[in-house]
Amino acid sequence: MFIKLIRRGLAALGLLTVAALPVPALARASGPALWQVSDKDTTVYLFGTIHLLPQESRWRTPKFDQAVGKSQTLVVETLIDTANPQKLQALMSAMGFASGLPPIANRVDPSKRPLLEAAIAKTGIPRQTFDRMETWAAAFTLLSVQFQTIGIEGDQGVESVLRKSFADAGKSVGELESNQEQLSFFDRLPESAQRLLLEGAIENPAETRTTFSGMLKSWLSGDTNAIAATFNKDLQASPELKLALLTRRNFNWSQWIERRMQQPGTVLVAVGAGHLAGQQSVQSYLQSRGYKVKRVQ
């Protein structure tokens, strides 16, 4: 369960997207879910995203494009400077490497070591480098190979598309968390959780393809109940992970939206679909504070 969550989570919970090539492109059904929070002079649209998508995925709808047209600002989870990747690489190096770590092979079950070695070989990175990586950082590096294998691309993801369209229109783009904050969620995970993350990063790509396709169908049809059920089931195995990656972040973002509601204007907040589904979603926190949240798609 935990391993499936990790693969879904990087795409739908919205943690830093790894570089990612084909799962068949799926046509839009009714469209991904879209909500609206508004008062007399402020509107905040909430749109659940998937950060990595197959080529030619059709997910935009007239209602969504109308919301984009009305919005002066786009706010995403974090902003990755693709024009200056050295910045993120330096951050990963500073946070993701340490001395005195056990060999990487000792951090997975012996039965999974052949899978680990095969995944490492595909990266082209010297084998000894992985022994110096913290477990979560090694998992990130290896997961990028898995996404490449099944044809999922970062530049096709919702945030990438939206950032370009807002920038082209001369509109501002902001973030809810810095790159360092997002990486710190993984850096602070207990080692046992990091090792499960590593095992998830070397699983059979065919299983990843099946898991991702199911999530993609739920997202395209706006089926938030299916998304919530999936994440609730997966997170039962790790309350610490749920608190760190989902619950705490949802609460923080709801507070940001509350503060933003004190300023006039229209904003589109685009975050991973898993954050906008279930009883502890961003919308649930806002409703508990007396805000009316209307689903518009």
Describe the structure.
This protein is an alpha/beta fold and 297 residues long. It has one domain (2-295). It has 13 helices and 6 strands. The protein has a 6-stranded mixed β-sheet. Helix 1 crosses helix 11 (224-235) and helix 3 (85-96) packs parallel to helix 8. The longest helix is centred in the C-terminal third of the chain and has 22 residues, at 239-260. The two termini are 30 Å apart. Mean pLDDT is 83; it is low at 1-28.
Write the layout of secondary structure elements.
Elements: H1 2-12, E1 34-38, E2 42-49, H2 62-70, E3 73-76, H3 85-96, H4 113-123, H5 127-131, H6 135-150, H7 158-168, E4 172-175, H8 179-187, H9 191-201, H10 205-220, H11 224-235, H12 239-260, E5 265-272, H13 282-288, E6 293-295
Parallel strand pairs: 2-5, 3-4, 3-5
Antiparallel strand pairs: 1-2, 1-6
Helix pairs in contact: 1-9, 1-10, 1-11, 3-8, 4-6, 6-9, 6-10, 12-13
Outline of this structure?
The protein has 13 helices and six strands. A six-stranded mixed β-sheet has the order 4-3-5-2-1-6.
**Percent of residues in helical segments?**
40-55%
Rg to the nearest angstrom?
Answer: 19 Å
> Largest sheet at a glance?
6 strands, mixed
Distance between the termini: 30 Å
List unreliable stretches of 5+ residues.
1-28
Structural class: alpha/beta
Whole-number average pLDDT?
A: 83
H/E series, N to C? HEEHEHHHHHEHHHHHEHE
**What spatial order of strands do you see in the largest sheet?**
4-3-5-2-1-6
Overall shape? globular
Task: Give the strand tally.
Answer: 6
**Total number of helical segments?**
13
